[in-house]
Amino acid sequence: MDIAHELRTPLSILRGEIEAIQDGISQATPQTIQSLHQETLHLQRLVEDLYTLSISDSGSLTYHKTTLNIAGLLRETLAQFDAPLKEAQLILTSEIINIANVEGDSQRLQQLFQNLLRNSLRYTDTPGKLHVTLTVTSNQVSISFEDSPPGVPNESLPHLFERLYRVESSRNRATGGAGIGLSICHNIALAHDGSISAEPADLGGLKITITLPRTTENK
């Protein structure tokens, strides 16, 4: 995957729209400004993800771990995505227990959740569904994100968390994606002595499950 292409695309759009305004071909309407703003945000997120992946791969990404209720953190993150999911016509349902303590970095774990939610927003056909669950056993917490079609070919599932890997299928369609977010999720899960895996979802799309050690406070 050519990461330079991912950087060039938003830059080309920004340059094209700005030059069109400069040449008098188009006007700086609110819609044009909004489009420029969205491309700027996309470029900023891409650069930030590349930086995060780089320092994570080198082992330099810092983690400030405390005992936290990951169930509350998950509900908080889902609430942040309520409006974008509704706008994308994705119906969100969840089954989350009240308390599930883990030893973790709240900022990094929230980043993991945000990346998975953005993944569903980007790739799930609309109207669609997203189902999130959090369950516990005596020694671990399991969190699953399951969405509706399109799915991922079985041969691609083992590679989803590889650096810069992209699925060449309808799941990737015109929405693009640099193949960075899931690699970051993988590194964050490992840094918490956990794991992350992917499998076909009962809803017809992709199911991603994170497992983390449960702290003794829960036992």
Automatic annotation (TrEMBL):
Keywords, ordered alphabetically: Kinase, Phosphoprotein, Transferase, Two-component regulatory system
SUPFAM superfamilies linked to this entry: ATPase domain of HSP90 chaperone/DNA topoisomerase II/histidine kinase (SSF55874), Homodimeric domain of signal transducing histidine kinase (SSF47384)
InterPro entries: BphY/WalK/GraS-like, HATPase_C_sf, HATPase_dom, His_kinase_dom, HisK_dim/P_dom, HisK_dim/P_sf, Sig_transdc_His_kin-like_C
PROSITE patterns listed in its UniProt record: HIS_KIN
Record-level GO cellular component terms: plasma membrane
Domain of life: Bacteria
CDD domains noted in UniProt: HisKA
Enzyme class (EC, first level): transferase
Catalytic activities: ATP + protein L-histidine = ADP + protein N-phospho-L-histidine
Enzyme nomenclature, EC number: 2.7.13.3
Recorded GO MF terms: phosphoprotein phosphatase activity; phosphorelay sensor kinase activity
An annotated GO BP: cellular response to phosphate starvation
Signal peptide: none
Record domain Histidine kinase: where: 2-216
PANTHER family reported in the protein's UniProt record: PHOSPHATE REGULON SENSOR PROTEIN PHOR
Protein name: histidine kinase
Species of origin: uncultured Thiotrichaceae bacterium
